[in-house]
Design goal:
By secondary structure, the protein is an alpha/beta fold. Helices cover 33% and strands 18% of the residues. The longest helix is centred in the last third of the chain and has 23 residues.
Length: 416
């Protein structure tokens, strides 16, 4: 019988996240060598609220990354060693406080035209200034639209890129990013895709032939701003609940909602909301998926971190009938990134690579909106986890774009 010494629920500690500044945590790595060890890590993930699993798969010999409070390190190490695992420290000094230098937190630019999006993580307002600038300068191909608002009433805005204005019946690629607040690289990547399509059209003209791109670069601006300015590891939105703040909008979609991979405790990182589509951010994505579902051929949702390209199903380990088409698209992206940056992305069904989690946007896109190709891209991280050093931002963005470019061309080959 598995010894579950470390399985007490620590919801008090979760409540305190965001109320205090946690300075005493470390990032650990452990590589399970058997299915029993994999199952034990999953048990910890589901039942121990003080541990925060940043990377965890169902696969043997794949690293798991866990944020461990310093006060729990001794018990954590003892438990894992008793189950035959040897945890190693990736970063001994994690802090949820915002202690980056000013150059890391804020863009340095004299005017929005001089902004280099590969050198910093942008604040929400600066993102909007940047896409407004693109809309003005490239009005022949760019349309900016407000498609809804967050709980705290921040506008959610899409960038539509098309060589034929006001054409709604053409093939469409839809990308969204930043539904999880702490995954800063995701909206940065979405902005980089926009930049490449708009400001570097000559080198990417093949991506705009007979295709419209609709990109929502930040789904969860409330949580993102909170993560940037107060608690780096905040994941959910900022919708107040009875006891805690925030729901996981990527568990809030009405397809097998709240069945697996969620917690019904409000303070949990994976709380799916009080009911399906209770969260305004999820409702905005739903409207996008459904309003254009007769033309969308490819839906890509950007997350971090782990270097995975995954497709439905997330709510179960089985695969949809059309999985081979999605697999071919994902493998085109993986091969391109291997060739251009010598990195390896694991490809497969989300419920098979990671753990079953229901209520995600990708499952909803395929099953309900009936979009033929729906993929999740988990972008890279480093020893900072979700917040790679700004010195790595440009190579990570270039890496991701090479994969997205290859996947888009593969989709066009199949669908157009």
């Amino acid at each position: 019988m598995i010894r579950l010494k470390f399985l007490l629920l620590h919801f008090v500690s979760i409540i305190m996240i965001g109320l205090t500044c946690e300075r005493n945590a470390a990032l650990y790595s452990v590589t399970p060598k058997s299915q029993e060890q994999v199952r034990y890590l999953r048990t910890l993930d589901l039942n121990n609220g003080s541990l925060d699993f940043w990377v965890l798969t169902t696969l043997i010999n794949y690293e798991a990354h866990i944020k461990v409070p310093v006060n729990d390190v001794s018990n954590f190490r003892d438990d894992l060693e008793q189950h035959g695992m040897q945890p190693t420290v990736v970063n001994p000094n994690l802090t949820s406080c915002i202690n980056y230098t000013r150059s890391e937190r804020f863009a340095r630019y004299n005017s929005i035209e001089s902004l280099d999006i590969t050198k910093t993580y942008l604040r929400y307002n600066t993102m909007n200034q940047y896409i407004d600038y693109l809309g003005r300068k490239y009005s022949d191909i760019v349309t900016i639209s407000t498609v809804g608002s967050s709980y705290e009433n921040r506008p959610l805005r899409t960038v539509t890129i098309s060589q034929q204005r006001n054409s709604f019946n053409r093939h469409t690629i839809l990308i969204d990013a930043g539904i999880h607040a702490r995954e800063w690289l995701a909206p940065a990547t979405a902005l980089y895709v926009i930049d490449q399509l708009v400001q570097h059209t000559d080198r990417n003209r093949d991506l705009l032939e007979n295709v419209t791109w609709v990109i929502l670069p930040l789904v969860n601006p409330d949580g993102y701003e909170y993560s940037l300015m107060k608690d780096k590891y905040w994941r959910k939105n900022r919708h107040p609940l009875r006891h805690c703040v925030g729901s996981d909008a990527n568990r809030n979609f009405d397809f097998h909602w709240a069945e697996k991979g969620v917690s019904r405790h409000e303070c949990s990182q994976t709380y799916p909301g009080p009911k399906p589509f209770s969260e305004s951010e999820a409702r905005v994505v739903r409207r996008l998926l459904l309003s254009k579902n007769d033309s969308i051929m490819f839906y890509l949702t950007l997350h971090s971190y782990g270097r995975y390209l995954m497709y439905p199903w997330g709510y179960r380990k089985g695969l949809p009938q059309t999985w081979r088409t999605m697999d071919a698209v994902a493998r085109a992206g993986s091969a391109a990134m291997k060739q251009s940056h010598n990195v390896n992305y694991k490809v497969g069904g989300a419920g098979k690579i990671l753990y079953e989690a229901s209520g995600g946007s990708d499952d909803y896109a395929l099953a309900v909106a009936q979009i033929p190709i729906a993929l999740i891209m988990e972008l890279p991280g480093d020893e900072r986890g979700f917040h790679p050093a700004v010195s790595k931002l440009q190579p990570f963005l270039e890496e991701a774009f090479s994969g997205i470019r290859a996947m888009a061309l593969k989709v066009m080959q199949i669908m157009v």
